[in-house]
Design goal:
Layout lengths: L14 H24 L11 H11 L10 H4 L2 H12 L11 E5 L11 E5 H13 L4 H15 L1
Antiparallel strand pairs: 1-2
Helix pairs in contact: 1-6, 2-5
Length: 153
């Protein structure tokens, strides 16, 4: 049985489980960034509900700057109060909607210790769908595709 699929209440503060979560979040980030580096982000489908997630995100957060996300602002009491109802809308329709997922603060850069924050999976989807559809992630393919092909030679 996959330990990560069990209820969180069973584990209290088990460091081995925290390490598994961190590894899973990092693997997800690595796969996603590789996709951004090699495919036109506007063509990426993250979920079967991309259109709905994006539409509701922009209805509820019309001026949210997805190019540069301030972690302190995103996790402020005021912002959490706005995000909570948005996230809960997807509780029974988006698999793993509340899983911890790494998000890049600055959309023009790779994941690293200074440019990564932990958000819920549905927040990741909402922000990354906006970045993809609004052309914000286009820079990743331009910047990093050349580096990938250079490293293969």
């Amino acid at each position: 049985m996959d330990v990560l699929s069990r209820p969180a209440e069973e584990f209290e503060n088990d460091q081995s489980v925290e390490a598994l979560w961190a590894m899973k979040a990092f693997e997800h980030a690595e796969v996603y960034f590789n996709l951004l580096s090699s495919v036109d982000a506007k063509l990426l489908r993250l979920t079967p509900l991309d259109d709905t997630i994006y539409r509701l995100f922009r209805e509820e957060f019309p001026i949210f700057d997805v190019s540069l996300v301030d972690e302190n602002k995103l996790k402020s009491t005021q912002e959490k109060a706005k995000w909570r109802p948005f996230c809960e809308r997807f509780k029974n329709i988006v698999e793993d909607y509340s899983f911890g997922t790494l998000l890049r603060s600055d959309a023009s850069k790779d994941y690293d210790e200074q440019n990564s924050m932990l958000v819920t999976r549905i927040q990741f989807y909402a922000i990354e769908l906006a970045r993809n559809r609004e052309g914000v992630n286009d820079i990743i393919r331009k910047k990093f595709a050349c580096k990938k092909s250079d490293s293969k030679n």
